[in-house]
Amino acid sequence: MFRKLSVFVALLIVGTMLLTACGGAAPTEEAPAPVATEAPPAATEAPAPMASEVEVFSWWTGGGEAAGLDAMIQLFAANYPDIEFINAAVAGGAGTNAKAVLASRLAAGDPPDSWQAHAGQEILGAYVAADQIEPLDALFTEEGWNAVMPATLLPLISKDGKPYSVPVNIHRANVMWTNPALLAEVGVTVPTNWDEFFTACEAIEAAGKICLSMGETWTAQHLMEVVVLGALGPDKYSALWDGTGDWASADVTTALETYAKVLAHTNADAASLSWQDASKLVANGDAAFNIMGDWADGYFSGTAAGGNLGLVPNEGYGWAPPPGTDGVFQFLSDSFTLAKNAPHPDGAMAWLKTAGSKAGQEAFNPVKGSICARTDCDTTLFNAYLQTAMADWATDTVVGSLTHGVTANPSWATEIGTALGLFLADQDVAAFQSALVAAAAAYPN
Ligand code: GAL
Questions:
Q1: Tens digits of per-residue pLDDT, 251-279?
Q2: Quick check: CB of 167 below 6 Å from ligand 1?
Q3: 386 CA → ligand 1 middle, Å
Q4: Which pTM does this prediction carry?
């Protein structure tokens, strides 16, 4: 019996190691057939010490994303050589697949030790509200993080004064990426308002190019929140989320009408493209513009060896605030949690210490295309785009992103996503606005 059990355990371990070596498995991937191996001697059958591994869950598997995570994993391996890192990343931009897998694991009482979560309502309105993660106030005190994490960010990860996650970065959602060579070829300058944008589209489309590239549904929602921000301005946009704004207002109607017009200048195959596919259309010169968060910077400028495009900022690609959003920084922050009843709490703490450290953030962010959450990183490590992001983060008006977890609790965000799916099919602005009004009333933060 013991021997049978140890063979089973050995097979399980080999299978897990193979899966990990393959870079973490998407839920639908089949596990490789286990390789038959000698059972370890009976004396080694005792379970491994608790801190011997850590399972970290994220959605960073693709260009730009995986490379950033790998940089942090390498540092973790150097700091904690005795702790095995299990990369449980599930593919799919913005966590579209990962969040569903995580929800079913949490429902089944099978949490990863630590998972990726956005600062704001995604943490406070979901994982904290459902009592699924541990407070980290002792860790913050021990590591001195209260002094080096931005004062704007701490309340978005805290309840009753206790932080519940470790932020690793600040991303900007409102960026319009451009192909400078294509713009020069068709004689177009970067538009600063939507009327200029529509005029630019005429020249770009006359040359047989896509004006604005877009991908699957969450990227359409990302575009929507940026257009709404530009139309409303930061105060009215933020008011929509704190209950003081009016989703039924004429301003929102105008914003949604503009959004519908913008959608008319996107590629017909958007629904089947990932965000990387859509960004690549700009990099290749097939499209002039793409509105996407600055993880696209990591993809544009990262090395080809890391699955990226290897472009030089300001040459191979350019950037600008999308129309109407100059002076506004629409932000989100990736962070990592400690699961309640984590199977390997010591391993999880080691991971969180790495993720929150200066060295961890300096390794991760220049590759990921984000700026440090910490305020003390070496700024010279960052490329030309990220230099502008650091400057703008310090001076712009800061608002939160819907699609990336800041402004709306997950129930509300899901309801908006459903309404948007219908709108993409029927383009009915009035019905869309009614659905947004109803969603705000049904699921306030
Ligand atoms: C966001 C996440 C970013 C990036 C992006 C695309 O939600 O915060 O780090 O991964 O999705 O996948």
A1: 999 999 999 999 999 999 999 999 999 99
A2: no
A3: 16
A4: 0.89
